[in-house]
Amino acid sequence: MNTTEKILKERIKELTCLHEVSSIIVNANTTDILDTLKAIAFSLKKGFQFIEETEILIEIPDLNFKTDAINNNHKISSNIMLFNKVKGKITASLKEEDLLFLKEEQTLLDSVALKLGNLLERIEIQKNEISLKRQMERADRLTILGELTAGIAHELNTPLANILGFAELLKEDFGSNKKISNDLDKIISNAIFSREVVKKLMFFSCKMPQEKQEIDIVPNIKNAIALLEATFRKEQVKHKVKIANKELWLRADTVQITQIVFNLIINAIYFAPKNSLVTIEAYETEQHIVLKISDEGKGIKEKDLDKIFQPFFTTKSAGDGAGLGLSVVHGIIASHNGTITAKNNKKKGACFTVKLPKS
Description:
The chain is an alpha+beta fold. Helices cover about 50% and strands about 20% of the residues. The protein has 8 helices and 11 strands.
């Protein structure tokens, strides 16, 4: 075979390879990217001059695939770009040191890296779209729930007040009768408990009156932690406080901000194993005050992440919670035009992140 024919043959191989890789990427299953990497790697291998002597390594975030062992002393590579940032690499190596790469093979590698980068960008955009859709759906559900709970709470307030008032009047009339008095105490106690549940529902639906003013939340955080010192000791849980600034100012309702901090720390203590650590962190960005509270517990199940702020949803044991604590927190934060997100830490436990606008 003469030189011209040999060159032509190599160009045909490279073009065939590019066509094949393009087809793989067009038909890629974005939920199982590993199979796509395998197909691209073996297709790319066939595009090189020395097919049997060439091995391919593809590295992308959290995943890589190689056709066989890579000779790091004799290789060429090309970066995989994701939104103009290097996020991976394709490497081709030759087993034999005396064999040479063609300059066109570097071009081939660059072209495939570009195509793979485009695929990864497409996958990332799809993930973001799905995530945004879920957030919007959750926000819609929470808005509807907020309206429903506001109505329920309003309807329950009057009869509860009547039950409590008449029970207290009856107790005055029958104070000398111990049995009747004890029964009335039970009615009063349960009415007060029900009133507190209604109050939490009102907080969730943002129907409680607010007194917003410019406040420094650092004292609120420290006061909430001080109030919970005994709880930390009782549950044998340690805590670490990381507050980046001496003062963190925002426009908010003091009582409600304290309730956010208190509820989130109580929640973290509940799920924290003995001798583990709860971390309370606060800092500011240009537009927000950020509060992070994380624990070292079991974390949140994936299926529960979208439901964690819904009223009456709880992962606590029966009798340990009505499922309103996080709902109340969500309602207060929403009424302050802020956001709260829950996610699992990389190693263990969960982290709740609150962002509140400064003004």
